[in-house]
Specification:
Layout (H helix, E strand, L loop, with lengths): L1 E2 L16 E4 L4 E2 L9 E5 L4 E4 L4 E3 L14 H4 L4 E3 L6 E20 L24 E19 L4 E11 L6 E3 L4 E6 L2 E3 L7 E4 L5 E3 L2 E3 L6 E4 L22 E3 L2 E3 L4 E5 L6 E2 L12 E2 L8 E3 L2 E4 L3 E5 L5 E3 L2 E4 L4 E5 L16 E3 L2 E4 L4 E2 L7 E3 L1
Length: 376
């Protein structure tokens, strides 16, 4: 364990001889032209910047070994950048870095609240939203060979992810947690994500993904949904009180995204077993997802399998997109998901307008309400 203030000029690889946790008590910049370094930058206070100056943080997991040999299992299970999760941090920047080789999280900005949500752990009507990490910038980063790329904790606010390339994460590339808002993912690349959707918009609202390329993400590009409080107290700290509403998916390109390009209300009608879902009071049943007033516009989808666009809730606006669906790809689906025809009013107000569809297969339309507008 070291402090950033111990390196007043810049951090050199010769300054450390093993994996080192560096507490960010001041700004830290890497020296020029350094080999990769096995560090973890720990932010425990606000108004600090990590600038790798084009250098690399590498924990030795995945496709690249560390200089001098392979890291231990323990070292590869530590995030490269970590925010303290027992306090809200503000005005933090991580820039000009390659981050790779952790079988954990590249940037872990989680946030836990203990008893701050009241005695029941639920946001009651009229109760103010807690303050998460805010005014955070991640810019000019390459994050590769990680368990998960970037994890934004609950109630994050004003998060800018710009010119970030997340490649070959074994799970999710970017996860935005419950209550987060004003999250902007722009001018980025998400590629070769493996076992879940590339970007999870989980109960996150008033946010945007724009001018970003999604390439070869096997289990999907962007999923918008409201988690039902799965395994409350074990995995999820609070029941989700904010649906994934008022988000904008604008001007992106989706190529070979497997299951789907964009999936709105992706957990609509999902069956949950006994004790799994807090919103269902731990009883078995089907969960009703909520994802409304979102805009999916001016995107390009190129696919040979799966479905380009899936929408399972309304009102939402899907407009001015271009879909090139080949082979087995379905150009779009509008449905009530796992729910039946009696749930068709949930699609009220859905507008599917002025999209250019070039497809060998027809769209999949199920349980549409009479107020769904489709014009393409």
């Amino acid at each position: 364990m070291r402090s950033a203030s111990e390196f007043p000029t810049c951090l050199s690889a010769s300054d450390i001889d093993a994996h080192t946790c560096i507490v960010m008590d001041t700004d830290l910049e890497f020296c020029a032209d350094q080999p990769s370094m096995p560090i973890t930058a720990i932010f425990d206070r606000s108004e600090k910047t990590l600038n790798c100056a084009g250098g690399t943080i590498d924990h030795g997991w995945g496709r690249n070994e560390l200089p001098g040999g392979t890291a231990t299992t323990q070292e590869t299970r530590i995030p490269a950048v970590r925010f303290y999760d027992d306090r809200s941090l503000t005005d933090i920047t991580v820039q000009n870095c390659t981050i790779r080789g952790t079988n954990h999280i590249g940037i872990q900005a989680t946030r836990f609240y203990g008893g701050q949500l009241g005695g029941n752990g639920v946001l009651d009507e009229g109760e103010e939203l807690p303050v998460g990490h805010n005014n955070i910038t991640f810019e000019d980063l390459l994050i590769q060979d990680t368990g998960l790329g970037i994890y934004l904790g609950t109630f994050s606010d004003n998060i800018n992810i710009n010119r970030v390339h997340v490649d070959n994460s074994s799970r999710i590339a970017i996860y935005s947690e419950a209550g987060s808002h004003n999250v902007r993912i722009t001018n980025s690349i998400i590629s070769n994500n493996n076992t879940r959707e590339a970007i999870a918009i989980d109960s996150t609202y008033d946010s945007e993904v724009s001018n970003t390329v999604f390439l070869n993400n096997r289990e999907g590009g962007i999923n918008l949904y409201q988690n039902c409080g799965e395994l409350k107290g074990i995995v999820c700290p609070v029941i989700r009180s904010t649906p994934s509403n008022n988000n904008r998916i604008i001007g992106n390109t989706f190529v070979n995204t497997g299951v789907s390009g964009v999936h709105v209300a992706s957990r609509q009608g999902r069956n949950h077993s006994l004790g799994w879902c807090a919103t269902l009071n731990g009883l078995p049943g089907q969960f009703t997802d909520t994802s409304q007033d979102n805009v999916v516009s001016d995107n390009t989808f190129v696919c040979s399998e799966g479905t380009a666009i899936i929408v399972k809730d309304g009102p939402n606006t899907i407009s001015n997109n271009t879909v090139l669906a080949r082979e087995e790809c379905v150009p779009f689906e509008i449905s009530t998901g796992g729910l039946g025809a009696e749930a068709s009013p949930m699609l009220d107000g859905l507008v599917f307008d002025n999209n250019s569809i070039d497809s060998a297969r027809p769209p999949r339309l199920r349980n549409l309400s009479s107020s769904v507008s489709i014009n393409h």
